[in-house]
Every structure is written in C-alpha cells, then in structure tokens.
Amino acid sequence: MANAARLPLEMLYEREARHPNKRYLVQPLPGGQLQELSWSDVGDQARRAANWLRTLELPQGSRIALVSKNCAHWIIADLAIWMAGYVSVPLYPNLTADSARQVLEHSESALVFVGKLDDWPAMAAGVPEGIRTVALPLHPEGQFDLHWSELQACTPIRDNPTPAADQLATIIYTSGTTGAPKGVMHNFSNFAFAAAHGLQLFESSEEDRVLSYLPLCHVAERMFVELASIYGGQTVFFAESLETFLVDLKRARPTLMFGVPRIWTKFQMGVYAKMPAARLDFLLKLPILGKLIGRKVLAGLGLDAMRYALCGAAPVPEALLDWYQRLGLEVLEVYGMTENCGYSHICRKGNAKVGWIGQASPGVEVRISEQGEVLVRSGATMQGYYKDPEKTAEAITDDGFLRTGDKGEQDADSYLRLTGRIKEIFKTSKGKYVAPAPIENRLAVHSRIEQVCVVGDGMPQPLALCVLSEVGRQEAANDSRAALEGSLKALLEEVNGALDKHERLSGLILLKEVWAVDNGFLTPTLKIKRNVVEGTYAGRFQEWAERREALVWHD
C-alpha cells in the first residue's frame, strides 16, 4: 500500500509542496469572522514555532502539553512539537486543576500551550510551578509567559525533520469512566498505520470536508480529523461553540463525520422538537414524499453532503441507526479504543448487519478469549502505558494482542457483536450476571429517553436510571404527562418481555438531573461515568426497588 510506511510529517511536507495555497483549516473568530489557513500557512507557522521550541534545548523526546478546545492552532502546535523532536501531551479542555496537575506532573511536561478554554483561571492553578505557558492566538483572559506571536517572530526552520517510525509521538491520557487516567503511548508508526489504512477504507480525497468538534485530545478526533486530513488532504472546519454548532455544521456541510451516539441522538431530538416523532415517521413512510422529507431534514442539519457518517465510542442503539437510514443517511458503526488509535472494526457501506458492529478493519487480527473477551492486534496497537509496565502487561498479551475489556462474539463472516463491558457486568442478589449495555440500548429507542444507565449489583432485579430529553421533560411538566407515562410503561413491558427473567427491570427511575460533562456525570467524550451515576443515587436504590413501581419520578 502506497502510504503504509509514510509518516505523518512526511505526508505534511508533501502536501505543503504539492498544493501550498489550497485551503486547509477554517477557523471561526469572535465577531463572526472566519480565518482560512492554507497548507503553506500551516507549515510556515508550525516551522516558526518549532524553531522557537528548539531554542529551549530540551532533551529529545521531552513532553510538551497542549490544552485547548478544538481550533486551527491546536493542530499547528501539535505539528510544531513533532518538528522540534518532542512529544505532545494533549489535555481535555475541561479538566479540574487537580486533574490537570496530575497529567502534567505524571508526564513531566516542560511547557504548556494554552488555547480556547471556558475557565482557564480554575485550571491554571493546576500548572505546576516552573512550567511555562504559551498562549495560542485564541486564548482566555489570564497571565501567560509567552504568546504565539512571539514564537512567530522566529524564522521558520529550513529542514524537514522526520522522526523515526518508532519514536514516541504522543501520550494520550484516557478520559476514564473509572479511576485515574492512564497515559497511552503512540509512536509515529502507530499513527501512520491507522491513518493510511483508514484513508484507503473511506476513499478520502482532497475534496472532502470535516467539522472538528469532539475534543481533539481524544483519539477518535485526533485520527479522524488531524491525521486523516494530513493523509487525505481534506479541509477542516472548526466549530466555534455548542451554541453555534448547527451554524458551523451548515457552513462546513461535511462529507465525512464521526460522532458519538449522544451527538447523533441530539440531532434526532432537535428534529423531534420541531416535528413530533409519530408525524415524521408517518411522512417518511410515504413513497415519494418520504425521500423528499428525509433529504429536507438532513439539509436542515447540514448533513446532506455526507459520504461517510460514523458513530462509535459507546454502544449505539439499533433504532437510532435505523432512523437515520430512513432519512437517507447510512450511519456506520465503528469500534476502537485509545489503545489502538481507535482503529479496529467498522461496518462497510451497504453491508451493515443489524446488531453487529462490522468486520475488522484492514490489517487487524481478532480473537475471542476463553472468557469471551475481544482481543485485537495490529500496527495501531499502543506502545504501552507511560511509566506503568504493570498495567501495560495486563493490557497486552505476550503475543501482542490488546485486551479490549469488551465481551463479544464473531459470526461466520467475522462480524463482531459486543455483549457488554467485562467490568460493567454485575451480579444480582440471586447470583445471576447481567450485562447492562444491551438493555440500555433497548430502552434508548424511546424518543423521550436521552440517557440511561442500568444498575443492579447485589439487588434482586436491575433498575434503569433514565434522563428524559428536553421534549420529554416539557411533557412531564404539562398536560402530556399521562400520555408520556403510558408510553414509558409500554416500553418497560416490551423490553422486559424480550429479556431473560433475571435481567428484567423492576422499574424506570426518571431523574430530574441531566447528566453532563460539567456536573461530572459524563466523560469529555460524552460517555456516562457509571461509577459517578451509581455513587450519586446508590442511597436510593433499595427504596426504589422496594416500591416495585413501573415508573418512579425522582423528587
């Protein structure tokens, strides 16, 4: 394969030389302005910053931290770090000061680039004394040791530094649904393997457009936006904020898009807020009008130019995929982890199999252990956890297979189905094991349930903790409450009818509080922190279970 051995910086230099004036990064600025940066602009700025970084005369392989929401200069700073021979350490932009300090100290970062942030003063306290800060062009109010403009005063480096394939490129600290984050080490070869194979898989081209909105510090966005753009040459548009997200999406009209299930659900809920689900479903069934309606809905979301729509990072309800299919958009489920560059399995276009994720991506070997755990091996497998040989040994088998922590099975055509996280499977007081994820997916088909977490460790029967959508919360507060309750009771009956006796839910608990990143219930990639959910409500579990009511409104 042509690009298999080509490393990220080599690909950058090639694009820089081949189409220097082609638009690469499109950054919204305050006041409604747009900044467009070409490949030569990006290369020039990265080279100037790399020159300044070299003047620090840090040892090769020194760690440089990067904390910012997604923006053009996140990618440029990352490239500069690599050009200077250092290792980038991205931090989530909403970390607490304590969490930021934990990562900065553990990685022994020598410098921090600081970009777009909502609450820098709260995080700044986590920067250990002696670590200098450099403000990117879009930065918060606050004191910084240097600004990007000062780095740009340097002359650009004249050479094309090319780190060795086995040289460490980055340490990605997992967001972690439980416990302290681990530093996943990836070298340039890992990135090259995943990006080059992915490029082939999606037939990506220089005409493609992507919108960058999930945290770039997360492996999915890093691969699907940063690395994929370097290898495929697509234009990257950035979202300005959550408030402007739909405007940003319509501006970009992406041809490729990766989203976590919560994002695709949010789109659906937004559509339902404007048109009742039953009416839309009726219209979509009409022979000719249905297709027109579907296209109109997609155009209203900015999704009408989509070639590949991907969903991953958490279990995806089948009903959600089916809904988009009826609109005329095939959303393909993908599966991967930080530990393998997010590169493992994907559904192929036109070959999706209901209830199954898809087949292994090119170059990925799969086997199922005796315990039912999915094991994968490829050139994208991490080098290990930084400073943690014990956890590395636990995660990677002697023959190089990565333990995913997911239970699963393969069919005769090598399609993969996940049946739950090994650590999430709990035992009821009757001694029966329950995997919560499949049950949660059955409940998530309801148009008024936005988030759900099934619990039941040590309880006679499981319970489902549910957060209603905005429309659902509105209905609960007005005359529609009775109809909503009837619909949810019917859902519970239907779901329980499809479950084994020990899995059946004793009731749905309807919570007032919405789970969000800000209140600690979700990871930055919008996964539910099961331990936080359980810890918050555990004191009420017995009381709710004893009530044996189909619906319990949390007061």
From TrEMBL:
Catalysed reaction equations from the record: a long-chain fatty acid + ATP + CoA = a long-chain fatty acyl-CoA + AMP + diphosphate
Gene Ontology terms, MF aspect: ATP binding; long-chain fatty acid-CoA ligase activity
Keyword entries, A-Z: ATP-binding, Nucleotide-binding
Keyword check for Nucleotide-binding: yes
Domain of life from the UniProt record: Bacteria
One GO cellular component term noted in the UniProt record for this chain: membrane
PROSITE patterns xref list: AMP_BINDING
Domain AMP-dependent synthetase/ligase residues, every copy: 14-386
InterPro entries with a match to the protein in the record: AMP-bd_C_sf, AMP-binding_CS, AMP-dep_synth/lig_dom, ANL_N_sf
Protein name, UniProt field: AMP-binding protein
Organism: Pseudomonas cavernicola
Lineage: Bacteria, Pseudomonadati, Pseudomonadota, Gammaproteobacteria, Pseudomonadales
